[in-house]
Amino acid sequence: MSAVCDVALVLGLTLSGLCAPPAEPPPAAALPEDDEAAWSVPAPPAPPVREVAPPMPPVVITKVVQMPAAAPPAPPPLPPPPPPPDPYRLAAQAVWNARAAARPTLDGSMSTYRSNVPTLSPASLTPGPTPAPPDVAPPAPKPEYEGDRRVSSLPVDNSRIVTTDRYITGVLETGINSQLDGSSGSIVIQVSRDVFGYHGRNLLIPKGSRLVCDYESPDKIGASRLAVSCNRVLMAEHRAEIIELTAAAGDVQGRAGFTGEVDTRFGERYGTALMLTGISTAVRLATAMASSGDKTADTLAQATDAGAEEMSTRFGEITASVLEQTVDLAPIITVPQGTRVQIRPAADWYIREVTS
């Protein structure tokens, strides 16, 4: 077989690999030499050598010093002596005593009186030295500005006060339809933003608090706003209450009252009257056209004309009555739920501190 393969190899034939030289096995993979520096841990440094502290010298007491005791406090000063008596007061007291002693007294009978009037010499009434005038503050200088004025107060702590210049932002929870007056029901406004005090960060009215309010239906034909007044607030979290508020509520821009979709009720006010007027006009027009087209039937034309005039008059009376009943219809204002509103207190609210 080897001879055949040699001939085939000379001719360049491999006979499908039968005469190919045997493949040498691949050399075995050799591992590199072990490198201790790749996995070894360096040795820790040597600990520093602590210096030995020098020995302390012995304590030798050479002298004992005694501090003198503190001197007692000085006694308080004696009060000043009382001022000398006022000579004018003494003289007036002497005269008063003399007059009191000189009053007549009843001695045994109604006709016998005895007068004990002491004799006063002029020397006894001679005043002594004039006392020094008391310390009187000098008069205040005349102010340059003499107009009507108002004096400010001292600084006020507003850490727990909601003053009348504050605005409380809220959202309307219940819609409003002005066909029913606020006396038959109330609306609820929920506070949507925390209200803090001016001084400090005291949370006075937390968001989520609710205000109970009433509204007034419009009573004029051209009205387009509803007057709303809040009379009670229920605080969130601790549920404290304030009643009798009379706080006015307005729209998001602070204008008084609420506004919404306004129905002027034009059709209800004038629709029936316009329809009756049109019917009356059509009847008169038809009667006039019928009477002008037929010249022979004068009697029938006159009767028809009289009937049309009577019907027109009755329609006019009905129209006037309908207008009288419907001309004063107030508009209907509808405010949707979720409308943003502003509430302004009518008086200062003092919020008490809640302690746990």
UniProtKB/TrEMBL annotation:
The keyword Lipoprotein does not apply. Residues 108-117 have a biased composition (Polar residues). It is a single-pass membrane protein. Coiled coil: none annotated. Residues 128-142 have a biased composition (Pro residues). The keyword Mitochondrion does not apply. Residues 118-127 have a biased composition (Low complexity). CDD domains: VirB10. GO terms for cellular component: membrane. It is found in: Membrane. Pfam families: TrbI. This is Type IV secretion system protein VirB10. It comes from Caenispirillum bisanense.
